[in-house]
Amino acid sequence: MTPQLQLQLKHCLTTFISLWALVAYSQNIGDTFTDNHISYRVTTINPNTVTVTDYTGGSSVTIPQTVDNNSNAFAVTAVGQDAFMDKNLTSVTIPDGVTSIGASAFRNNQLTNMVIPDNVTSIGAFAFRGNLLSSITLGAGVNTIGHGAFRFNNLTKVTIPNQVTSIAGETFANNPVTEVTALGVATIPTIVTDNTFSNRSEIDVVIPRGSKIQDYENEGWTGFKSIIEEVEDGDFFTVGNLRYQVVSVASHEVNVTGRDRGSTDTDITIPRVVRVAAKDFKVTETSEGSFNDNNLTSVTFESPSNITSIEGFAFQNNQLESVTIPNSVESIGTTAFYNNQLTSIVIGEKVTSIEGFAFQNNQLESVTIPNSVESI
User: Can the peptide bond before residue 304 be classed as cis, meaning omega within 30 degrees of 0?
Assistant: First the structure.
């Protein structure tokens, strides 16, 4: 065999091997493969993406952001129909790259909480039906929620993201929901049927500041216990016979600022918690001058109190004969109880400072100062 012929044969063999490798390791749309107990179907090539189609692993699963097959990397962009249905799952982590969750994808498992990534735009029918969910976080990108997607769970609170345009029938049915926060600003989500929520009369709906209740009712938000605007830091509101101001929505704290306008009650109880806009807020302070000159004869702090500060002038110029400062209080302001008829006071064990004239002009015969007090 001549050297030239040998060279030609070698070239042909190299070309054949290269073509064989290309065929062997190439992927086509519709191809399937399994990695780490998760099955995938190729959905696009260049870019390479896959959809999760099945699972045969344990009760806890983390879906990967990317998966390799035949030396090719694929982005996981969807969880397909029935992919994790009836798998006895207790924990699932969905990667940020997923944009859709198919019908019945996680149906009939034991999931107790779920975080839907921001890139997910659609959640299919019955996707999480029949779990044990007590908490869900719907990503900011969710646009549509399918029929019965979260039916038969244990949800008590639901927040609907701003981008949601429609909520299908029975989506949250058979859940003990008591609070729904609807963040629809650009678009008010349409409730498709009357049974989207099965217990409307027990649900408080909180809508964005400045929204019109009528606009929500026009989109099917009717029959609820209440529809109210969300509160912001600095807002004033009334519960019962007392007025409050929001200190922090983030930390759920308010101050009591006095009696409601027009109230003449002389016997008041300051609660430990008040509820507004479907949220509970701790009452942590009596504001400066809050009950000044109100003819009060009795003040009770609900136990265990959350009050940490009684500000200056708070209860001056009343007819109080006795008062018990809760153990939660750390400071008592200037003239806080000035000019009452106090014959006895009990000062809580956490008070560290008592400002000037706090108990002046009363009828006290004896006072016990706790060891916690650092300045008077």
Answer: yes
Cα angle value 171/53/56 (rounded, 5°): 105
Q: Which tokens is 19 given? A: 């073509």
Instruction: Name the more confident of 102 and 20.
Output: 102
* Beta-bridge partners for 204: 179, 226
Closest by alpha carbon to 70, among 30, 33, 16?
33
pLDDT tens-digit series, residues 34-74: 999 999 999 999 999 999 999 999 999 999 999 999 889 99
Task: Tell whether the torsion through CA atoms of 67, 70, 72 and 78 is positive or negative.
Answer: negative
Amino acid symbol at 103: A
3-state SS assignment for residue 29? coil
Q: List CB contacts of 309: < 8 A, sequence separation 6 or more.
A: 284, 285, 286, 329, 330, 331, 333
DSSP 8-class letter at 189: P
CB atoms within 10 A of CB 288: 17
Q: Which two tokens stand for residue 122?
A: 């659609």
Nearest to 295 by CA among 315, 318, 316, 313: 318
> Letter for the amino acid at 79?
V
Average model confidence (pLDDT) across the chain: 91
CB-CB contact of 224 with 199 (8 Å): no
**CB neighbours of 338 closer than 8 A, spacing ≥ 6?**
313, 316, 317, 357, 358, 359, 360, 361
pTM: 0.74
- 199-253 pLDDT per residue, tens: 999 999 999 888 888 988 988 999 999 998 889 999 999 999 999 999 999 999 9
For residue range 333-352, list pLDDT tens digits in order: 999 999 999 999 999 999 99
* Kind and range of the H or E run holding 24: helix 3-25
Scanning the structure block, which residue is given the tokens 């719907």? 138
pLDDT reported for residue 65: 98
> In angstroms, how far is the first alpha carbon of the chain from the final one?
112
- For 76-127, give the DSSP string: EEEE-TTTTTTS--SEEE--TT--EE-TTTT-SS---EEE--TT--EE-TTT
